[in-house]
Amino acid sequence: MISDKAHIDPSAKIGENVTIHPFAFIDKDVEIGDGTVIMPFASVIRGTRLGKNCKVYQGAIVGADPQDFRWKGGFTYCHVGDNVTIRENVIINRGINPDEGATRIGDDCWLMANSHVGHDTVLKARVVLGNNVSVAGDVTIGECTILSSGVIVHENSSIGDWVLIKGGCRITGNVPPYCIMAHNPTSYFGVNATILRKGGHVSEDRIDDIAKCYRHIYQTGTSVFNAMRRIEADVDETPERNNILNFIEGCKLRIVAIPKDLE
Length: 263
Hints:
Blueprint: E1 7-8, E2 13-14, E3 19-20, E4 25-26, E5 31-32, E6 37-38, E7 43-44, E8 48-50, E9 55-56, E10 61-64, E11 78-80, E12 85-86, E13 91-93, E14 103-105, E15 110-111, E16 116-117, E17 122-123, E18 128-129, E19 134-135, E20 140-141, E21 146-147, E22 152-153, E23 158-159, E24 164-165, E25 170-171, E26 174-175, E27 179-182, E28 187-191, H1 193-197, H2 204-218, H3 224-234, H4 239-250
Parallel strand pairs: 1-4, 2-5, 3-6, 4-7, 5-8, 6-9, 7-10, 8-11, 9-12, 10-13, 11-14, 12-15, 13-16, 14-17, 15-18, 16-19, 17-20, 18-21, 19-22, 20-23, 21-24, 22-25, 23-26, 24-27
Antiparallel strand pairs: 27-28
Helix pairs in contact: 2-3
Protein backbone atom coordinates (compact mmCIF):
# COMPACT_ATOMS: atom_id res chain seq x y z
CA MET A 1 0.00 0.00 0.00
CA ILE A 2 1.48 3.29 -1.10
CA SER A 3 -0.53 6.35 -0.16
CA ASP A 4 -1.17 9.03 -2.75
CA LYS A 5 -0.65 11.53 0.10
CA ALA A 6 3.02 10.55 0.48
CA HIS A 7 5.72 12.44 -1.43
CA ILE A 8 7.70 9.93 -3.51
CA ASP A 9 10.31 11.18 -5.97
CA PRO A 10 9.96 9.52 -9.39
CA SER A 11 13.59 8.34 -9.27
CA ALA A 12 13.07 6.32 -6.05
CA LYS A 13 13.17 2.54 -6.44
CA ILE A 14 10.44 0.86 -4.41
CA GLY A 15 10.45 -2.93 -3.87
CA GLU A 16 7.50 -5.29 -3.71
CA ASN A 17 4.93 -5.26 -0.90
CA VAL A 18 6.23 -1.94 0.46
CA THR A 19 3.88 0.16 2.60
CA ILE A 20 4.29 3.94 2.55
CA HIS A 21 1.81 5.79 4.75
CA PRO A 22 0.37 9.29 4.18
CA PHE A 23 2.72 12.25 4.59
CA ALA A 24 5.91 10.18 4.38
CA PHE A 25 8.73 11.75 2.34
CA ILE A 26 10.81 9.63 -0.06
CA ASP A 27 13.61 11.62 -1.70
CA LYS A 28 15.37 11.14 -5.05
CA ASP A 29 17.83 8.28 -5.54
CA VAL A 30 16.41 6.24 -2.67
CA GLU A 31 16.04 2.46 -2.74
CA ILE A 32 13.54 0.69 -0.47
CA GLY A 33 13.61 -3.11 -0.18
CA ASP A 34 10.71 -5.55 -0.31
CA GLY A 35 8.28 -5.61 2.59
CA THR A 36 9.51 -2.41 4.22
CA VAL A 37 7.04 -0.10 6.00
CA ILE A 38 7.44 3.70 6.12
CA MET A 39 5.12 5.29 8.70
CA PRO A 40 3.51 8.77 8.46
CA PHE A 41 5.86 11.78 8.66
CA ALA A 42 9.00 9.62 8.30
CA SER A 43 11.62 10.82 5.80
CA VAL A 44 14.03 8.77 3.69
CA ILE A 45 16.60 11.12 2.18
CA ARG A 46 18.63 10.84 -1.02
CA GLY A 47 21.43 8.32 -1.11
CA THR A 48 19.68 5.97 1.33
CA ARG A 49 19.50 2.24 0.61
CA LEU A 50 16.92 0.58 2.88
CA GLY A 51 16.91 -3.22 3.01
CA LYS A 52 14.04 -5.70 3.16
CA ASN A 53 11.41 -5.88 5.90
CA CYS A 54 12.50 -2.72 7.69
CA LYS A 55 10.12 -0.46 9.60
CA VAL A 56 10.66 3.28 9.87
CA TYR A 57 8.42 4.97 12.44
CA GLN A 58 6.90 8.43 12.67
CA GLY A 59 9.27 11.38 12.60
CA ALA A 60 12.40 9.36 11.80
CA ILE A 61 14.89 10.75 9.26
CA VAL A 62 17.03 8.15 7.50
CA GLY A 63 19.97 9.49 5.49
CA ALA A 64 19.86 13.06 6.82
CA ASP A 65 22.54 15.50 5.73
CA PRO A 66 25.77 15.04 7.75
CA GLN A 67 26.24 17.34 10.74
CA ASP A 68 29.91 17.99 10.04
CA PHE A 69 31.66 21.06 8.64
CA ARG A 70 33.82 18.79 6.44
CA TRP A 71 30.80 17.85 4.35
CA LYS A 72 30.68 20.15 1.33
CA GLY A 73 27.35 19.06 -0.09
CA GLY A 74 28.51 16.10 -2.19
CA PHE A 75 26.31 13.09 -2.88
CA THR A 76 26.88 10.51 -0.14
CA TYR A 77 25.25 7.34 1.15
CA CYS A 78 23.47 5.64 4.02
CA HIS A 79 23.07 1.85 3.84
CA VAL A 80 20.52 0.10 6.07
CA GLY A 81 20.37 -3.71 6.16
CA ASP A 82 17.40 -6.07 6.36
CA ASN A 83 14.93 -6.37 9.26
CA VAL A 84 15.98 -3.09 10.84
CA THR A 85 13.57 -1.26 13.17
CA ILE A 86 13.95 2.54 13.32
CA ARG A 87 11.66 4.00 15.96
CA GLU A 88 10.16 7.46 16.41
CA ASN A 89 12.33 10.54 15.78
CA VAL A 90 15.54 8.60 15.11
CA ILE A 91 18.05 10.50 12.97
CA ILE A 92 20.67 8.68 10.88
CA ASN A 93 23.15 10.90 8.99
CA ARG A 94 24.76 9.97 5.68
CA GLY A 95 28.54 9.80 5.20
CA ILE A 96 30.55 12.92 4.42
CA ASN A 97 32.79 11.70 1.55
CA PRO A 98 31.27 11.20 -1.91
CA ASP A 99 33.93 8.74 -3.07
CA GLU A 100 34.48 6.58 0.01
CA GLY A 101 32.75 5.44 3.15
CA ALA A 102 29.11 5.65 4.16
CA THR A 103 26.94 5.27 7.22
CA ARG A 104 26.01 1.59 7.58
CA ILE A 105 23.35 -0.05 9.76
CA GLY A 106 23.62 -3.86 9.82
CA ASP A 107 20.87 -6.46 9.61
CA ASP A 108 18.43 -6.90 12.51
CA CYS A 109 19.42 -3.71 14.32
CA TRP A 110 16.92 -1.97 16.61
CA LEU A 111 17.17 1.81 17.06
CA MET A 112 14.83 3.08 19.78
CA ALA A 113 13.11 6.46 19.95
CA ASN A 114 15.14 9.69 19.67
CA SER A 115 18.46 7.94 19.09
CA HIS A 116 21.00 9.51 16.72
CA VAL A 117 23.64 7.89 14.50
CA GLY A 118 26.29 10.24 13.11
CA HIS A 119 28.00 10.27 9.73
CA ASP A 120 30.12 7.31 8.59
CA THR A 121 29.26 5.29 11.68
CA VAL A 122 29.01 1.52 11.30
CA LEU A 123 26.55 -0.53 13.35
CA LYS A 124 27.13 -4.22 12.71
CA ALA A 125 24.36 -6.83 12.89
CA ARG A 126 21.87 -7.03 15.81
CA VAL A 127 22.94 -3.85 17.58
CA VAL A 128 20.40 -2.26 19.92
CA LEU A 129 20.39 1.47 20.66
CA GLY A 130 18.21 2.48 23.61
CA ASN A 131 16.09 5.62 23.84
CA ASN A 132 18.03 8.89 23.46
CA VAL A 133 21.35 7.23 22.62
CA SER A 134 23.72 9.60 20.76
CA VAL A 135 26.42 8.09 18.56
CA ALA A 136 28.83 10.56 16.95
CA GLY A 137 30.47 10.24 13.55
CA ASP A 138 33.12 7.68 12.55
CA VAL A 139 32.14 5.22 15.29
CA THR A 140 32.12 1.42 14.92
CA ILE A 141 29.84 -0.76 17.07
CA GLY A 142 30.24 -4.54 16.97
CA GLU A 143 27.68 -7.30 16.60
CA CYS A 144 25.04 -7.93 19.27
CA THR A 145 26.07 -4.92 21.31
CA ILE A 146 23.50 -3.06 23.44
CA LEU A 147 23.72 0.63 24.33
CA SER A 148 21.20 1.38 27.07
CA SER A 149 19.17 4.58 27.24
CA GLY A 150 21.03 7.87 27.28
CA VAL A 151 24.47 6.53 26.33
CA ILE A 152 26.75 9.02 24.53
CA VAL A 153 29.49 7.70 22.22
CA HIS A 154 32.10 10.21 21.09
CA GLU A 155 33.68 10.49 17.64
CA ASN A 156 36.20 7.84 16.48
CA SER A 157 35.30 5.44 19.29
CA SER A 158 35.10 1.72 18.64
CA ILE A 159 32.97 -0.77 20.59
CA GLY A 160 33.51 -4.52 20.26
CA ASP A 161 31.07 -7.40 19.84
CA TRP A 162 28.60 -8.48 22.55
CA VAL A 163 29.17 -5.40 24.75
CA LEU A 164 26.61 -3.95 27.17
CA ILE A 165 26.92 -0.23 27.94
CA LYS A 166 24.73 0.72 30.90
CA GLY A 167 22.43 3.72 30.79
CA GLY A 168 23.89 7.22 30.82
CA CYS A 169 27.51 6.19 30.18
CA ARG A 170 29.78 8.47 28.20
CA ILE A 171 32.17 6.53 25.93
CA THR A 172 35.24 8.44 24.78
CA GLY A 173 37.42 5.61 23.51
CA ASN A 174 37.50 1.92 22.66
CA VAL A 175 35.49 -0.74 24.51
CA PRO A 176 36.76 -4.31 24.00
CA PRO A 177 34.38 -7.22 23.27
CA TYR A 178 32.13 -9.01 25.78
CA CYS A 179 32.37 -6.31 28.49
CA ILE A 180 29.83 -4.51 30.61
CA MET A 181 30.67 -0.85 31.11
CA ALA A 182 28.92 1.41 33.63
CA HIS A 183 29.10 4.75 35.50
CA ASN A 184 30.76 8.07 34.70
CA PRO A 185 33.67 8.10 34.30
CA THR A 186 33.30 4.76 32.52
CA SER A 187 34.29 1.72 34.58
CA TYR A 188 34.65 -1.97 33.78
CA PHE A 189 31.66 -3.77 35.32
CA GLY A 190 32.34 -7.41 34.42
CA VAL A 191 31.66 -9.78 31.55
CA ASN A 192 28.38 -9.67 29.63
CA ALA A 193 27.73 -13.29 30.63
CA THR A 194 23.93 -13.23 30.77
CA ILE A 195 23.60 -12.17 27.13
CA LEU A 196 26.37 -14.52 26.01
CA ARG A 197 24.54 -17.45 27.63
CA LYS A 198 21.24 -16.68 25.91
CA GLY A 199 20.59 -19.18 23.16
CA GLY A 200 23.76 -21.06 24.03
CA HIS A 201 25.93 -18.69 22.02
CA VAL A 202 29.01 -19.21 24.21
CA SER A 203 29.80 -22.12 26.56
CA GLU A 204 30.44 -21.65 30.29
CA ASP A 205 34.10 -22.63 29.85
CA ARG A 206 34.61 -19.97 27.24
CA ILE A 207 32.81 -17.37 29.37
CA ASP A 208 35.25 -18.26 32.17
CA ASP A 209 38.13 -17.70 29.75
CA ILE A 210 36.74 -14.29 28.79
CA ALA A 211 36.54 -13.38 32.48
CA LYS A 212 40.14 -14.52 32.96
CA CYS A 213 41.24 -12.26 30.11
CA TYR A 214 39.61 -9.25 31.73
CA ARG A 215 41.01 -10.02 35.16
CA HIS A 216 44.46 -9.63 33.58
CA ILE A 217 43.45 -6.41 31.84
CA TYR A 218 41.37 -4.61 34.45
CA GLN A 219 42.08 -6.16 37.84
CA THR A 220 45.81 -6.82 38.18
CA GLY A 221 47.13 -3.26 38.08
CA THR A 222 49.55 -4.06 35.25
CA SER A 223 49.88 -2.30 31.90
CA VAL A 224 47.73 -3.29 28.93
CA PHE A 225 50.88 -4.51 27.16
CA ASN A 226 51.77 -6.85 30.02
CA ALA A 227 48.17 -7.99 30.35
CA MET A 228 48.15 -8.98 26.68
CA ARG A 229 51.28 -11.10 27.14
CA ARG A 230 49.78 -12.75 30.23
CA ILE A 231 46.60 -13.61 28.31
CA GLU A 232 48.60 -15.22 25.53
CA ALA A 233 50.45 -17.36 28.08
CA ASP A 234 47.59 -18.11 30.47
CA VAL A 235 44.35 -18.41 28.45
CA ASP A 236 43.68 -21.18 25.93
CA GLU A 237 43.18 -20.00 22.37
CA THR A 238 39.49 -19.58 21.49
CA PRO A 239 37.63 -17.31 19.04
CA GLU A 240 36.66 -15.08 21.98
CA ARG A 241 40.22 -14.78 23.33
CA ASN A 242 41.50 -13.96 19.84
CA ASN A 243 38.73 -11.40 19.33
CA ILE A 244 39.75 -9.62 22.55
CA LEU A 245 43.46 -9.60 21.65
CA ASN A 246 42.87 -8.52 18.05
CA PHE A 247 40.55 -5.71 19.10
CA ILE A 248 42.99 -4.29 21.66
CA GLU A 249 45.94 -4.58 19.29
CA GLY A 250 43.89 -2.86 16.60
CA CYS A 251 43.29 0.01 19.03
CA LYS A 252 47.03 0.25 19.76
CA LEU A 253 46.34 -0.85 23.37
CA ARG A 254 44.14 2.19 24.03
CA ILE A 255 40.92 1.06 25.73
CA VAL A 256 38.51 2.71 28.14
CA ALA A 257 38.60 2.40 31.93
CA ILE A 258 42.41 2.03 32.04
CA PRO A 259 44.45 4.59 34.05
CA LYS A 260 46.71 6.66 31.81
CA ASP A 261 49.88 5.36 33.42
CA LEU A 262 48.91 1.75 32.56
CA GLU A 263 48.06 2.27 28.89
